[in-house]
Write a structure and sequence with these properties.
The protein is built from 2 helices and no strands. Helix 1 runs antiparallel to helix 2. The chain has one domain (about 1-70). It has about 80 residues and is mainly α.
């Protein structure tokens, strides 16, 4: 049970890192290339994708935590 909890936390951290990098890359493109329409648009897309990855990662983490708690509550203690 503990390994599954730790794996779930590692997955959340990986999702957080990915979301942070997408968002940071998007902000960098928006900030440093404001005159380039293509890079500016790409920056907004990357920023939005980063936010979406972060939200989906948190949702997946909480859903798995609930399933693990439910499974843990149903297993008999030996």
């Amino acid at each position: 049970m503990m390994r599954t909890d730790l794996a779930n936390e590692r997955t959340l951290l990986a999702d957080g890192r990915t979301a942070l990098m997408f968002t940071a890359t998007g902000v960098t493109l928006i900030k440093f290339f404001p005159l380039s329409y293509g890079l500016h648009t790409t920056g907004w897309l990357l920023g939005g994708t980063g936010v979406a990855i972060g939200i989906l990662g948190i949702k997946r983490f909480t859903k798995m935590q609930q399933r693990l708690r439910h499974h843990h509550d149903q297993t008999p203690n030996i």
